[in-house]
Amino acid sequence: MPTSIVEITTHTHFPIKLTSTNFPVWRKQVLSTLIGLDLDQYVDGKTKPPLKTLEGKENPAYNLWYRQDQILLGALLGSCSDTIQPIVSSAETAHQVFKCLTDSYASVSRSRIISLKSKLAKNPKGAKPMAEFLHEMKGIADELALAQAPIDDEDLIVHILTQLRDDYKHITAAFKVRDTPLTFSDLFAKLIDYERSLQETQPAPNIATVNQTQKQPSRYTGRTGYDSRNHTRSNNFGPRDNKSRTHNSGSNYNSRGFLTTQYYIHTHTPILNF
C-alpha cells in the first residue's frame, strides 16, 4: 500500500465510462490501472482498512487510507454513465462501488458471454473480404477474453475454418492435417495470400460481342453504318453472294440471307462473348 496519496482522475485513469453493455472492458480498465498503481486492494476487498484509532488516538495510517479511498471512490463514480450512477450513489467506499457493480452486472456478463460464443460459431465469411472477416472473429475472441471467458488460438482457428466458403476447402484441408500448431497470426497471413491467389486466377470478363441476327431489310442504316443502297441488290441469297456481302463494319450475311451485326463494346477488360 502506498505511503503517500496517489492522485487519480476519471479522465486520465478511467476514460472508458461504464454502460449497461461494457462491464467486462470497464472492469479490466479499473483493475489494470489500480494494479499498476498498487491500489487494487482498495477495490478487491482482500485487505481490510486500518483501525481508525490506536490507543485512543487517531491512526495516521487510517487517515491516509481513507483519503486515498475517497479519491478512488470519486474517480469510480465519475467513470459510470448517468444511468449507472444511481445504482452506486449510496456507496461509501471504493470497494462498495466495485462490489455493487460486479454483483449487478455479473449476470449480464454471463449472458454476453453466451451471445459472443454463439456469434463466434455462426459468423460465416460470405462475401466479406478476408481481412474484415478475420478481424471480426478476432474481435469476438478479444471480447470473450475481457469477459473472463478466453478462447485459445486453436479453437478460434477451428471456428474460422468451418465458416469459409467452398473455394477455400483446399487450404482448409491442408490446415487440418498439419502436425504443428497454427497461430492466428500465421492463419491471417496465409488466408490473405490465398484470397489474393483466388482473385488472380479467376478469369477476367471479356469485351462483349453482341450478335444480332435479323432478316435483310430493303433499307438499313444502323450503328455499323450499313446502307443497303450502297450494296448490289440481288434476289439470289445463295452462299456465293453472301461472300460478297461481307461488310468491313462487322456486318455479314448468313446462308439464309439474314444480316448478322456485331457490336464491339470497348471496356478495360478482355472480350466477353454473349
From TrEMBL:
Residues 203-221 have a biased composition (Polar residues). It comes from the Eukaryota. Residues 203-254 are annotated as: Disordered. This is Gag-polypeptide of LTR copia-type. The lineage of its organism: Eukaryota, Viridiplantae, Streptophyta, Embryophyta, Tracheophyta.
